[in-house]
Structures are given as structure tokens and as C-alpha cells.
Design goal:
The chain is 41% helix and 16% strand. It is α/β, with parallel strands linked by helices. It has a seven-stranded mixed beta sheet.
Length: 436
Amino acid sequence: MTGAAPRLAAIAETLLDAPLPVRLRAWDGSEAGPPGAPVLVVGDRQALRRLLWRPGELGLARGWVAGEIDIPGDLYEVLDRIGGLLWERSSGTRTGRSAVARIASLRDPRMRGALRELVSLAGPGLPPPPPVEEVRHRHGALHTLRRDRASVSHHYDVGNDFYALVLGPSLVYSCAYWEDGTTLEEAQRAKLDLVCRKLGLRDGDRLLDVGCGWGSMVIHAAREYGVEAVGITLSSQQAALARKRVAEAGLSGRVDIRVQDYRSVADGPYDAISSIGMAEHVGTDRYRDYAAALHRLVKPGGRLLNHQIARRPEPDEDAYTVDEFIDGYVFPDGELAPLGRTVGLLEDAGFEVRDVEAIREHYGRTLRGWVANLEQHWDAAVRLTSPGRARVWRLYMAASALAFERNRIGVNQVLAVRTPEAGDSGVPLRTRAWLS
């Protein structure tokens, strides 16, 4: 009898309409695919039942999280080779539908045959329940105060000790700013200092850090630039550790950490606002309100530094779909917008955009550093969370690193000013003076 792997390889090549880019190893020990190619293991036929009931990347991700699908070798190489399932390599844009989902199209006789073969391989029975790390039971309108709090809790309340393993001592969960030869810690410090210099922080300034995480930005700004800082987060676990770090740094009198939504801040004006890796949670429908709130909170002549991940523009914006794996397991309700839309909405709110710096390649390098940390401390990470949650993070960060490196998504620092009516922005004539 033919082994499972050759049969599965034939199904995959029908769906891809191309040669299999990896070697498959099935639960019965059989293998198929290009000799010497990196190996993808389908260790349990339950993964096929998941795929039948949920064609596409979410079905595949559930198999990965459950440990039914594995990659024993170079994770990046396998993900890069199968990336064509989700993206057009020539243009770097989303196809809108995974090639795996073509199996749902029964008009093609080849697809009908592939479906019958997959059903036969999967065996009888319903799919197993999704792994428990998946987000469940979301109700109500997107981006209400209550729903945003729940979404943030799912992602950030994994545990401070887990994040410390992954992020390292800096506890900065956003793109670092690299130079050749720097370490992750040095690159994160360089990023924090770059933000401070772009904001033109001076002794005695009031700084609001929106989405302050574990307090790294406000601690750096208060210690190095003498500001009075307020950091806000929706994660109670983040806030608890941030307050502890502030106290240990001797900055309790100058730094205030709050569990608070940006929509509830009412003690402006601030001299400067930083928003680093937070705006991805705001949502397209709420972004205009977000920009207006920050404009209201910063004083005339004050600056905003908005550091945000961006997706590539789509030919048909209405056709864009949120990544199912990221939405289901990592960032519930997260949304990415093209850079142009973000700049336009900041300008609509009254800001004058003075500088945009694209640092896409820096994020790929940062993510690879986090993956290396996770892999180095794998057993501890599993103890602190669960095997499934650790697998979620390994896949999410490795796939995201490739997405930045292949220009599928980007990240940008946008410097904007609430320019007074008299027109003096306060920005140096040579805008990028902070680089010297």
C-alpha cells in the first residue's frame, strides 16, 4: 500500500499547481518530496481533519499549535518556501486566499479528486477542538473599551516572566534600531534614545507614552532626559511590573504608570507623546478618533512620535482580510493599515507630519533575536505558559520576521507636530538633527 506521505504530496501539488517545495514526512514514517529539501512533518492525521473543516492557514495553524504539524529543521527555510501559499512572490502582496483553500472549489475535477483523497487520508470523525490558546467568544462591536481590554489581556497577560525570556532584559516589545555589531539590548536602547531625540525632549517636559508596556520608554526618558512621564497600558500585569521597575530606578516621583485607555486620558496638555507599537490595536474605524485624541492631548508646538507596523497597499482595499492565525492566536482584533492612510489620518486630525522613517529591515532582525531567545529558553517558556502557547509564539515571530524581510509588511516612525497657528513648528531647519 502507498504510504501517507506520497499521497499527501500529490494532494499538495494539485492544490499548488506546482512542485512541492518541501519534503513531507507522515505519521506512518513515509516520506515524499524533493530529496534534501527541508522537512515538514505531519505527525497526526488529525491535522488533515482540521484542514478539511477549516481550509487555509487557520486549519494549518491549529495543527501546528497542537503539535500535529512540526518542522524539525530550519523553521525559517520551510516557512519561506511555503510562503507562496499566502503571498504573490512577484509583487509582495496578499493573494487574498490561501492556495490550500482551493480545495473548497469543487468545479475543478482535480480538486474533487484531491478532496476525496484528503478525506480518505484524514479518516472518519469530526475535527478535534481548537487548541486552547485560540481566542474565543468575542462579542460586540470592534474596539470598544471593554473588547480592547480583553484583546490586550489575551496578548500581553501571558506572563511577565515569559516576556522577559523572549524580549531580554530591555523588556521592549517593538522594533529595535540596529547598527552592525550591536546586540539586541543595545539596539533597543538605541531605539528608545532615537524616539527621545526625535521628540526633542528636554528637562521638565511632560511626556505621555501610549501603550507603555513594561515602562522601558518612560524610564529611559525620565532618567536620560529629565522628563515627567505618564505611561498608560490596558494590561494590569504590564503595569505592575512597570511600577516595580520605575521604583527600582528611583523614578517614582517623576513617572506615573496607569492602567488606562488613551480615550480616557484627560490631564493634558503634554509636551510630547510617544506611541510605540500600540496603534496596531486601534483599528481602522477608530483611527480618526485616536489621532484626534492625541492631537487634543499634546500642546501647540508639541510633538508626536507614532511608531507603527504597516501593511502593503491592496489594489482592492475591500478585499483585504485579516491574517487568521494572527487574529485567532496572537493579536485579537489587530489591524494594519498602509502608511499613506496613517499619515493622511494624522494630518486630518490637525498634525503636521514632518518626518517618516521606514525601518522595516530592523524588525526582521529584532524578531530573529526574540526567536533565538525563545528557542534558547524553550523548556522554561513551556513551563511558564504551555507547549501550545510557546509554539504559537515561535511560529508567529518567525513568520513575521520573514514578512518584514520580504517586504510584505513594514514599520515606520512618523514624527508629527501640532503646529501653532503662527506656523512655527519648532522643528530644526535640518529636520534630522537627531541623527548627529
